[in-house]
Amino acid sequence: DSSDDIEDVSLFDADxxxxxxxxxxxxxxxxxxxFHLFFRVSAIVVYLLCExxxxxxxxCMVTIILLLSCDFWAVKNVTGRLMxxxxxxxxxxxxxxxxxxxEARKVSAQGGKTSSEAESRIFWLxxxxxxxxxxxxxxxxxxxxKVKWLAVVVMGVVLQGANLYGYIRxxxxxxxxxxxxxTNYLGKQFLRQ
Length: 193
Prior knowledge:
The protein is mainly alpha-helical.
């Protein structure tokens, strides 16, 4: 997309003492890891159990959208930065051009990563799995003709899908890099066969 400019900036809170820690499998930020999954899983559980717990559609919808909004903010601004050292946002300048801005934690002088493997797995597993569940819910609501629930499910897909898209772009770079990475991967798989 020609209207997207990509700019890499250093993470605003990168501490030197964090870069000195060794890369281990332990969870360094248990509160961030908990809230990374809490809002996501809570929204899914409320969606599944809502008709059993209450007959008020509005109360269920508001609860789910609040949980999804809290998840969007927490993942975009807090857990991504702490768990994998990435953060993204999109800003529009005065000319109307869209600029994607990505922050990444600087790599330590020894060349090692400063994020924990366990936290990275938790982050990416939650980031990828939950939007897929919301897509399944969307097809389920569509094919079972639950039109009122379709709006809630679409919000789940949009909010969690936006975070997934932003972090994938943050991790691999621009859309050109994403396309070339997919092409290279498929080419290597074809050559192995």
